Every structure is written in C-alpha cells, then in structure tokens.
Amino acid sequence: MEWLEEWQMLPYTSPYSDGSHLDPRTDESEKRIVGVFHELLHLTVGKKIERKNVSNLRRPLSLPHKFTKVFERHPGIFYISKKSDTQTVILREAYDRYNLAHKHPLGEFREKLASVMREGFLDRSRGLYKKEKAWGTDPGEEIDSARNSSRDESDSEDLLSEYDSEEGHQEPC
After folding, report:
1. CA 63 to CA 54: how far, in whole Å?
2. Three-state SS for 65?
3. Which of 48, 67, 154, 168 is the most buried (most CB within 10 A)?
4. Are 51 and 71 in contact (CB under 8 A)?
5. How does pLDDT run across 25-37, given as a tens digit for each residue?
6. Are residues 72 and 119 in the same domain?
C-alpha cells in the first residue's frame, strides 16, 4: 500500500507528451504508461480492448517492452477479463458493476443490431420463415411465404417500369 501512495504522489507526465526521455524502469515511466492507456481506453466505444491488440501499439506509442504489466500492477484502474480464452483490458471507472456507466450512441446501435440479427437467426433456425399464417383465416389454413414474396416482387417490377430509360429496354443475356 505504501508503494501505491508513493506512486500517486509522483509528478504527472502527460500521455500526450513525448516520453522518450523517461527511463522505462522508473515509476515515472509507469505512471505515463498508465495515463496513456487510461486515455486510450476512454477513446474506445466500449472502454475496453483486447490485450493482444494493445501489444501492437508498443512502437507507435514509444512504450518499453513488457509495458502490459501495468494492467496487473494497477487493478484499481484496469481489470483484465479472461472470458473465452481472450484477455480483455477494461477501464474500471467506466463501468458500474457489469454495465457501462455512460453508453456511447454507437455502442447502443451495435447492441440493437446484434439483437435484431440474433432474433432473426433464432427465428430462422426455428423455421418461422418457411410458412406464415394469414390474418383473418382459419387457423389450419397456411400461406406459403414464397408465393407472397413473388407477388410483391412482380408489383415492384410494375412500379419500376415507369423509370425505364428512353434509349430502349435491353433484355439480359
């Protein structure tokens, strides 16, 4: 605990400044690395990133070797999830228990899209797209959805025929 209190008292080095003058073995360098990844995770939509992807950022951010150890040394700032054999670094302060505290609009859109796709996949696996029941008919009477869709396509062809070019209609080969 003493180490953490001393570490917090160290001078703050901006994650946006050049850190090449810092000795990679010092606590000042480690504090800059924590700041860099704190800022980086704040820029992501989900406030998390895969650990292997973080390793690819070592050179562009001019970070020392084995810089990912800061995630383990600072469990109050970062959380490492090992779900599905994938290590994901998560910014703790961005989450309220298991939910993102402030959801980004793109994240909400992604969740809705995934939900719609999942629902469609489940409906298809249950065979719900094969036959539909017509409203107002007997429960035993079923209509093949393929017939309905072919009628809809022929209706749309009539609507589009108005927009044929004046050069003449060419038949496909």
Report:
1. 11
2. coil
3. 67
4. yes
5. 888 889 999 999 9
6. no
Last residue of a domain, one of 79, 100, 121: 100
Give CA–CA dist 24/128, Å, rounded: 60
- Domains in the chain, number: 2
Question: Domain check: are 56 and 69 in the same one?
Answer: yes
Quote the CA–CA distance of 132 and 149 in Å, as a whole number.
11
Domain-ending residue, one of 70, 100, 130: 100
Global pTM value: 0.61
Residue type, 123: D
Find the length of the chain.
173
Going by the DSSP 8-state scheme, the letter that residue 105 receives in this structure is H
Q: Which of 119, 79, 113 is nearest to 98 (CA)?
A: 79
Are 29 and 46 within 8 A, CB to CB?
Answer: no
pLDDT in tens, 64-117: 888 888 999 998 899 999 998 899 999 999 988 888 888 888 888 888 888 888
Give burial (CB, 10 Å; 0-12/13-18/19+) of 36.
buried
Give 11-30 as a DSSP string. PP--TTS--TTS-TTSHHHH
Q: Is 165 inside any structural domain?
A: no
Bridge partners (DSSP) of residue 81 are: 88
